[in-house]
Amino acid sequence: MKVVVTKSYDESCAYVADMICKLVNEKPNCKLGLATGGTPVPMYKKLIEANKAGKVDFAQVRTVNLDEYCGIPETHDQSYRYFMNTNLFDHIDIDKANTYVPNGMAEDVDAECAAYDERIQEFGGIDLQLLGIGHDGHIGFNEPADHFSCGTNCVELTDMTIDANARFFANRDDVPRQALTMGMQAIMQAKAVLMVVSGADKAEIIRKSFCGPITPEVPASILQLHPNVTLVGDEAALAGLKEEGLV
Ligand code: PGA
To answer: CB atoms < 10 A from the CB of 164, how many?
Structure first.
C-alpha cells in the first residue's frame, strides 16, 4: 500500500484529482469507479476546473458509482445520481449515457444488482476505484457484517451511517434505511484503489482498517489484500497509522 500524507485536505484533493487526470490522459477510455459523500466534493471541483482548462478530457470515460439509496428517485436532491450530476457530470464533457449509478428504485432489486455487476464485467473491470470510508469502516455501503459481500447487493444501513448522513437531510427520519452497493468483488478487482480521507474523526477507523485483522466487521480491512491501494489523507486522518509506524 502506498500512503500519501498531506498537509491539508485541499492538498489531498489536489493529489487525488491529479492522479485521476493522469490516468484519463494516459487512457482516455478508462473506467472510473466513483464515490459520493462529503470527502470527494472539493476533489470533483478540481476535476471540473481541469476539464474547463482543457487539461483533461472525459469524452470517452465511463464511470460506475459505488452505491445508491433505495426508495428515493434520482431527481431527489440526496440521491447519489443527483449528487454525481450536480457535483461533477453536469460540468464536464462526459457523456451521461456512459455514467452508471445503481437504480435505487428498481422493483426487481436482485435483477438490478446482477445487471450492475454484468455492466462492470462488460467494461472489463474498473481501472481506478475511488473510495471514502465510513466511521464504521464501510466502503461503498458495505457495512460491518459477519461475512464480506461479493456482488452488488442491497444492504441495511447501520445506525452509525444513518447518523453520519442525517446532516444531508432535513430530518434523521428522512435518511433511507437501505441502499444498493457494489460488492467487494468489483472493488477488489479494480486495477487500482484510491482512498481519500480527512480529519481526526477518521483516524481510528483507518488504523483498524489497515493495521488490524482482516475482518468483515471492519469492511475496509479487506483492502489489505488488494495489490494496488493508494491511501491519501491529511496528518489528522493518518495519525493512527503514524502511531503504528506505517508512515
Ligand atoms: P464522508 O463519507 O466522505 O461523507 O465522510 C464517506 C463514506 O461514508 O464512505
So the answer is: 19
Among 80, 133, 160, the mutation site with the greatest number of ligand 1 atoms within 8 A of its Cβ is 133
- Per-residue pLDDT tens digits for 80-104: 999 999 999 999 999 999 999 999 9
219 lines ligand 1 (CB under 6 A): no
State the pTM of this model. 0.97
Cα 93 to Cα 89: distance, rounded to the nearest angstrom: 8
* Distance between CA atoms of residues 220 and 233, nearest Å: 15
- In short, whether 140's Cβ falls inside 6 Å of ligand 1 is no
- Among 140, 132, 138, CA closest to 113: 140
Query: What is the per-residue DSSP string for 63-92?
Result: EEESEEESSS-TTSTTSHHHHHHHHTGGGS
Atom number of ligand 1 nearest to Cα 35: 9
Length reported for the chain: 247
Mean pLDDT of the chain: 97
The mean pLDDT value for 164-191 works out to 97
Report the distance separating Cα 100 and Cα 241, nearest Å: 34
Closest-CA residue to 47 (of 19, 72, 26): 19
Say yes or no: CB of residue 132 within 6 Å of ligand 1. yes
- The question of whether 77 is a catalytic residue gets the answer no
What span, in angstroms and rounded, lies between the C-alpha atoms of 139 and 226? 14
Cβ–ligand 1 distance for 220 under 6 Å, the answer no
Strands 128-131 and 31-34: parallel
